[in-house]
Prior knowledge:
- The protein is of the alpha/beta class.
- The protein has helices at residues 3-23, 26-35, 42-49, 53-65, 85-101, 103-112, 122-134, 145-150, 164-167, 188-198, 210-215, and strands at 40-41, 69-74, 77-82, 137-141, 157-158, 176-180, 202-205.
- It is 52% helix and 13% strand.
- A four-stranded parallel β-sheet has the order 5-4-6-7, with helices on both faces.
Amino acid sequence: MNAGEHGFKSQIYDQLSRIGKAVAHPGRLELLDLLSQGERSVEALSQQSLLGHKNTSAQLKELRTARLVRSRRKGKHIYYRLADDSVLAFIHLLRRQAEKQYPELDSLIRSRLPENQDLLPTHRQKDMVAKAATGKVVLIDVRPEEEYRAGHLPHALSIPIKRLTEKIADLPRGKEMVVYCRGPYCVWAADAVQLLLERSFSAYRMEMGVGEWQLMGEALEISEDSDE
């Protein structure tokens, strides 16, 4: 390879490395994960990530420079969203690769999740969503209400984890409860299932979240008042 050819390839790799640099920060990965749930304001992202407003803005700027996210202004607020569905797929592939390369990641996840819970098998998850349409199961979304409004699995009932204790008496007995939150690393679903099991419900945790549902080529239901 001559110098000219190598210089050309180096320019290509330099462009590819921009993606790597953009995601080489745990805070930015968390922001991308939050944005996979739907559009968010800087203030909401700051509160949910605990990064602080100034730091959140700085990390979002890096992601925007790498063209992984887009922004819009509404009044005094700036809202961010993933640039397109390919970014969602990229986040998913990055997670799967990390799970494959680092067994300690699986150990870390298992250490936080109760051992007495049944994880709904992947091949049954789509079937459970279909059953929710018929009322045979109750599909519960325990994410914050604004995330539910931005997009949720079809026929899901919104009961944020913080309100589950007060709402549990309203849930029908004799039906299976299937709970999901932000995806496989979200512990809210596990906490919700634990509470339901303690109240003698038949409950299962769904590893899939809205991002995984979209990657299956399925559409989300979006509430009319999806803005914060």
